[in-house]
Amino acid sequence: MFAYVLDYFVKRKMPIDTYTNTTNNYGWLQFYERAFSVMTWFPISFFNPNAYDYVFVLTDDDNGYSPFWNSKACVIVVEHNGKRQLKLNSYYTLQTREFKLRSPPSDPATWVIPVWNNPFYKKFDELTVLSIGNASNRINLPSLFKNFNDIQFILVDRHMNVHSDKPNITRYNSLDASKLVELAGRAHYIVFWPTSSFSQDHKDTSMSGSFPLAYSVGTPLIMPESFIHPLGLDGIVGIEDSIHLEKPSENLYSRFLVQREKLLERRDTVFDLIVKDKP
After folding, report:
1. Is residue 65 within 8 Å of 85, Cβ to Cβ?
2. Which helix (H) or strand (E) holds 268?
3. Residue 106 pLDDT exceeds 80
4. Helices 2-11 and 28-36: crossing angle, nearest 10°?
5. Among 114, 180, 211, 244, which is least packed by CB within 10 angstroms?
6. Kind of pairing, strands 169-173 and 152-157?
7. What does the alpha-carbon distance between residue 211 and residue 101 come to, in Å, rounded to a whole number?
8. CATH classification code of 128-257
9. Whole-model pTM?
10. How many Cβ atoms are within 10 Å of 50's Cβ, its own excluded?
11. Residue-range domain boundaries for the chain
């Protein structure tokens, strides 16, 4: 969530300060320091919203911002769930995707998938699929991929049993962010497969973090066929029952990169609309 905002401000050569807790960050802060030249992470206790024209609150249910709502700053709140509309006293609200089921649906000028322009990596020589998050522990990979034995799988989670009885499955627990981004960029696909009611919500009302990561690092997504239309994105491989997987075709990858560019352009257009002289 930091990345797409920092990427925009670096691109526009505009100053931005960042406030956050620094514990249990899994190397993300160090990744941002290298990627976006962030020199200082200010502690929350130093925060004075009246020193700023604009403040991005990157998670709508972050109660830590409660003491600051009466400030002079224009607050931009990022909403993460179409079922949860908190009616906060904000200058602008953004959604992490288009919430089509919300009544009324998301305004076209307010949803921005949090994609950043990460450099691309050289892909692995062998066909490789990455899965991220706790759902990775429960995906029945042999049932999804007819040529399971021909694919290298990388499974990543913060709380994962790293033991694997399959020679083509590598598991990582609490992987450093820079290594995670590299593996995601070197894989040929990132697979998302819902194995819980929480992940089922990513079909219409929320979004897995693997979606924007995939477009950021240049790695096409694999997901259930039924998820593709609600998400409204191109360059995705859909699975109905199972699939014989090959490396991305030139056509698929071209469509994926076109969609990636559209998402980056959308972010810049919407942010340009927001970050202007204060009213």
Report:
1. no
2. helix 250-274
3. no
4. 10
5. 244
6. parallel
7. 19
8. 3.40.50
9. 0.94
10. 9
11. 2-114+263-274, 128-257
